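Following up on my earlier thread - several people asked me to post the actual chain instead of describing it. Fair enough. Here it is, all 172 residues.
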Amino acid sequence: MRFLNSSGHAGFTALPAQIIGISAVCFALLIAPTSAYGGDLNRLSRATLAETMAGIEDVDASEANLANAAPDSLEGKLYAYQQARRVLESAVAAQNMALEHFEDLAAMTASQVGLTRRQFHARKDDAANAYNALQQGAEAAQIVAQAALENLCDKVALSNDAMMELHAMLGL
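Reply from S.P.:
Thanks for posting it. Predicted structure:
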């Protein structure tokens, strides 16, 4: 993951995926945009997902049913993954907004924003610090979402098609 300093230089840290040893396919699908599958819930069946997850074809994936399910049930695990994934998506969106704000500031001069050089550098420092803090939040959310996915799948990797079916079923 990238981190910023106030001069706009980016550094890189290890991805949480590298730290906890998850597959690159699962990580890429986990952070994929929510509408990557066109939003057509009827287009995808649960057939591929059912090959990996017993009982999934009989699950009522309505929000109310999932939210009220026992945590250790399949529905409860689906809900935990769904919610963790939504938190991750929000964290990544916030991080992207912070990066955009920082880049906007970095493209300006102190005089363009009506600040002294010291004030301007302080504002850039604040923007870089905000981005870095949001990055840490996104990394933590990614770890939680990955743990929820592993718990849901009993640590069995899902194919791309199965992940698409899972996300379509959960409205992700």
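The chain has one domain: 2-170. That should answer part of your original question.
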